[in-house]
Amino acid sequence: xxxxxxxxxxxxxxxxxxxxxxxxxxxxxxxxxxxxxxxxxxxxxxxxxxxxxxxxxxxxxxxxxxxxxxxxxxxxxxxxxxxxxxxxxxxxxxxxxxxxxxxxxxxxxxxxxxxxxxxxxxxxxxxxxxxxxxxxxxxxxxxxxxxxxxxxxxxxxxxxxxxxxxxxxxxxxxxxxxxxxxxxxxxxxxxxxxxxxxxxxxxxxxxxxxxxxxxxxxxxxxxxxxxxxxxxxxxxxxxxxxxxxxxxxxxxxxxxxxxxxxxxxxxxxxxxxxxxxxxxxxxxxxxxxxxxxxxxxxxxxxxxxxxxxxxxxxxxxxx
Length: 319
What we know:
By secondary structure, this protein is α/β, with parallel strands linked by helices.
């Protein structure tokens, strides 16, 4: 009933994908997401080493036989070549790359029979990923969390604009947490939703309960929340990106300081920082999706609530 090109391509029941998490994206959360009918996501650099990634992939396989994915954030993941070797050895069905151009890795994965999804911030980047051969693309709207691009637009504009131009499946991300957001993005032409904050507020997510409670209590209209997510220092962003272009790719992360105004001044973005869950939560704790989250539930309950609510909406539409 919820068949799209994404569900057919990935072999999942529902067009719902778990987002990647820098410090805590492990099988603890990915396995229940996959088991509940979505696509669970292990984040490679959250496991620190290729050996750690292999162990966590096997841990996930022991908990579910459903499809899952591994994220490789190209600018922060150590030992990318070895991580890719593990992914191929372990026959991971889907890989998401992100942050920078990833076609070399993507083509290598595709040659091994793995579906390649690339995550971007703009329609222009989505078109580039399509030209490079990606099987599908995740586009993150301005409502999302993480490092921001001054070129990002809200989902309401981004997704309809993207599907007019991009021929491969488009997956919507940023501010989606309930059946209304799910149905809205599908109606705009997306073929799956990609959720991070909503899955953080689940019982299985391996972060402290106090952070989950903050998500429940947060309001998107609160200036502290709104400005952190939507506020961009364009001049600072351009300066950082220009500096990045002048140095070798493997060195740029250690020189990267604040990419956006949302990053607290007392957080140093070293390579080590990306492996610390507590620091990850300080910089990118949640998106504007907090407005749709009012309690902590299990992963299964979250997905079932979204689907049952979407069914109700669809019935109203049919009337």
